[in-house]
Amino acid sequence: MMRYTLVIVAVVLAGLWAVAPAAAGAAEYPAKGRTITIIVPSTAGGGTDTATRLIAPILEKDLGVSIQIVNKPGASMQIGLTQVAAAKPDGYTLVMSVLPTAASIYLDPGRKATFTRKNLQPIALIYEAPFCVWVLASSPYKTLKDLADAAKANPEKIKSGTTGYMSTGHFANIEFQRAAEVKMATVNFQGGGPAITALLGGHIDVAFNSIGELLGHNKSGAIRILGVMDEQESGFLPGVKTLAAQGYKAQPIGSDIGLSSPAGLPREIVDLLTNSVRKAMGDENFKKKMAEQGNTVRYLSPQDYAAHWDRVDARFKSLIEIAKQQPE
Description:
single chain; D-Maltodextrin-Binding Protein, domain 2
C-alpha cells in the first residue's frame, strides 16, 4: 500500500510541476522589459489603425510595458490575422480584429485560411462603426427611395462602390440590394479611402462606408447620406434615418473592432488585458477622439465578445455566399 501511495504522490507532484511554469508566467505578466505587439491587419492611417494608436499609450501606462503597433495589411486582413492565430499564446502578440471581415476569411473555403474562429481568443470589443449609404450632394438621388427606384428601372447600371471584396462595405452593399430587391454594378475598392475618392471624383454613383469615414465630407456639404445601416439613428448624423425606418428591412451592417489574442491565452492574462482595455476606454481624451472619428465606443467582456462573434459568424454566412458569386 505504501508503494502505491508513493507512486500516486509522485504523479500528482509531477503534474503540479508541469503546470507551475504556466501559472508563474501568467502571474508575472507582463514582464518588465518585454514589449507587447499589437498587429493591425490593415494599412497605417485607417480607422482601425488610428483607434489602436489612441488606446495603446493608455494601455502602456496601465500595464507598465511598451506596446508596439505593427501594420500587417493584405488579403483583406488575412495576412495579419493568420500571423497572430499561429503565434504563441503568451500575451505578447495581440491583434485588432474586425468583424465581419475576420469571419469572412475562415467561413469562405476559397480563402484557404489556416485558422478558424477557434484559433482566436476575444479579449474585449472596443468600438463599433455602423455603415451608411451615401451619394454626392449633386446626385439626382435625393432619398433612398430615389436610389432604389432608379436601380430597379436600370438593373446593374448604377455603379456601387465598396471598401473591398468581402469587407464590411461589400456586405453592406449586398444587404441593401437584397432589402431593396435591386441589382447594381458592384465595384470593390482596396479600402474605404479609395471608394470615397472614386465617388467624389464621379467614377461611381453610390458607396457604402462607415459613418466615421464620412463625417468631414458630410460636414462640408460635399455629400448626401441617404440612410444608416443600424438599428437606430446615429447621434453623429442627426436627421438621417435608418434603412428600416425608410421601409427597407435590412439587417444592421457595421464593423465591430476589438482586441484578440491567439487561442490558449491563460485566463489570468485574458482577465488582466480586458480589465486594462475597459479602463482605457473610460479615458476622457480617448472617448473624445473616438467621437470625433464617428466611432461608437462599446465594451464587451471576453465572454460577451465571444458570443457576439459567434452570432456574426451565423448571420453573415448567407451574405458570404452571395459575395462569392460576384467578381472580386
